[in-house]
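so the lab meeting is tmrw and i was supposed to have these ready like two days ago... anyway. pasting both below. for each one the top line is the aa sequence and the line under it is the structure tokens. i havent really looked at them closely yet so no promises
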Amino acid sequence: MSRLGIFVDRKTLSNSEQLNALIRCRDVAEKKGHDVDFIFPVDISKIPKMDALFIRARTDPMNVTYVAARMASFHGIPVIDDPQSIQICSDKINMYSHLIRNRVSLPMTVFLSKQDLTVECVTRLFDEMDSPLILKEPSTSFSLRVERVSDIASFFRVAHRFFRLSDWVVVQQYIESKYDWRVGVLDGRLLYACKYTIPSVTFKIQASVNGHVVYCGVESVPERDVPPHVIKLGLAAANAVGNGLYGVDIKNTNGDAYVIEVNDNPSIESGEDDCYPHVFGQIVDHLFAK
């Protein structure tokens, strides 16, 4: 009998939605005849005994999850997320470079170095991309260190703060929308699709407002109701990164679609899969088909 390891941490289990999703995943795997072990960081030495590994904790090259992914890969154990996907998606310079090389549609995007931070350069960026602009610190996740700036003074203030953490800052054209499409992709095929409705008090799917965290609304959308060009763009973006599990965030406005992010370790606990009841079964089958 095959053994599936689901790598988690205490933060994963502290959220009831995530916990319920993990239980659903375990139940699906057991119905398919697999044994399931929840593996905490302290139990990382158990990974070589698994036949497949599904990481359901925050991924980052500086995190123990990356060690878990590398350990599985070293022992030839199929793993989601794989180390390469974690490396790419955790560094926005790396991620956007992959998308640009593969000619995936993006908002206008510039990588700004510390040496380029001059009044002349910033003025040119506003002239070329209009106002406001979006600044991103490359290692950000969950919409952290993503800010909107409308003038040169705010640009310098945010950029200086981000340059304390990175040698580069991503500057992007701002595209207004009431919601983002999230296209879930597994092994180059559509896994699910949903809409993330942006809270009116922010421009991000998650933000801290007056000391309170506000989240986007989630609406699962059947494939037939998703614009075909959005699905096509999501698949192209995921394929530019790898053949694992990804959540691609897309803005679709006036018939034009733009990739905002490609996320490894995408959320599947807030109703993203309501119209796609076989999501966890497909993930389990994918892991054990390798």
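ok protien two:
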Amino acid sequence: MATKRTTNNVTTTEPETIEPKPFSFARLFSRNGHEKEPVAPVKTKGPPKSVWREYFESAVVTVIMALFGMTFIVQAVKVPTGSMQNTITIGDHLLVNKFIFAPGKSLPFLPQREIKRGDIIVFKYPGNPFDPKRDDRPDNRPILTNYVKRVIGIPGDRIRIKGNSVMVNGEVVPEHRITARDHNRKDPLEILEAPPKKPGELYDVYYKPGPEDDEQEYDAFQGKEEIVVPEASYFVMGDNRNNSEDSRYWGFVPRDLVIGRAMFVYWSFDESAPTTGWFVLDFFVNTRWSRTGTLVK
């Protein structure tokens, strides 16, 4: 409001001075240009949370998220055998991408696709119908034991094996063949001869030295020269070709037993190295640090 001032019996009216306020977007966009009245804080009902209760709730949420991730996204597996040496060594701990091969029709914006030749997959061992006694071992139980192999044939492929040559649909699969000696221990294969890779050879396979056995017969072929991969099934083999129990011996892998695709090594422990007697010291000394984060391909 304006103020009145009297000087020498003369009354004058002075305009009211308004102090400038700092610019604020809140005042600019507030309704009718009026500032909003502060809202009184709302008191929470019930007793206040204790520190232990907050820790407990955080732990429960963490466990739920971990279980969700292990069920639908990733899974950790350990490689106990040498069937994939030297691509994957004994003692490697892998992270498996379970989402990429999720069943059902995939959407365009999701990172999902069908299983391809050359993929390294983790799956539940389907069992050996040709020699059931081999499934009596506690470390080789059908459905309970995880296997890691490379996909050689997809549904509809015609598979034929002659010596060291693997043929799919009448053509030899372009594999980089390396000669190596397997000492049947937990250490990697001893490389004897590794010729340069030729164009198209995307992965390495390892064979023992000596002549090829063209007359060797495999149980899954049942005397046939060629077999056809059935619908929703896959023909798999280990990269250590002379020391791998795979589809040559027990048949095909059903699609519903596939867990996912092996991604990378998150930890590798050299089980062939001598122990110091101290777990913590063994962890630092016998861990293959150079393999940590290695992609599996």
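from a quick look at the 2nd one: Residues 45 and 172 are 73 Å apart (CA to CA). Confidence is low (pLDDT under 50) at residues 66-72. will dig more after coffe
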